[in-house]
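[step 3/7] inverse_fold.run input=structure_tokens len=86
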């Protein structure tokens, strides 16, 4: 399979990415690093210390599955900040 570019929408912005990209790869490319240990409670913190969750086509994806989700043409990826407290 060749490495074609596909168009996706990431946080409302149209992007072209490799057809081989996974959700994990686009998150890392966009500044949302995830440590190798997916069981780490702090795994979803950006460099600014904010927690987040990721959704593909309005479906929330478990952080444990980010590496398994292969992006498809026209996918919409939304990264949502998590606010805690009372």
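[step 3/7] decode complete -> sequence:
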């Amino acid at each position: 399979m060749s490495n074609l570019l596909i168009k996706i929408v990431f946080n409302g912005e149209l992007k072209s990415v490799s057809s081989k990209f996974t959700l994990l790869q686009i998150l890392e490319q966009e500044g949302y690093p995830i440590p190798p240990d997916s069981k780490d409670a702090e795994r979803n913190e950006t460099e600014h210390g904010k927690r987040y969750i990721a959704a593909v086509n309005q479906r929330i994806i478990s952080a444990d599955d980010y590496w398994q989700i292969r992006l498809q043409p026209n996918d919409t990826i939304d990264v949502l900040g998590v606010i805690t407290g009372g």
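[step 4/7] annotate
The beta strands are 5-10, 13-18, 52-56, 59-61, 76-81.
The longest helix spans residues 23-29.
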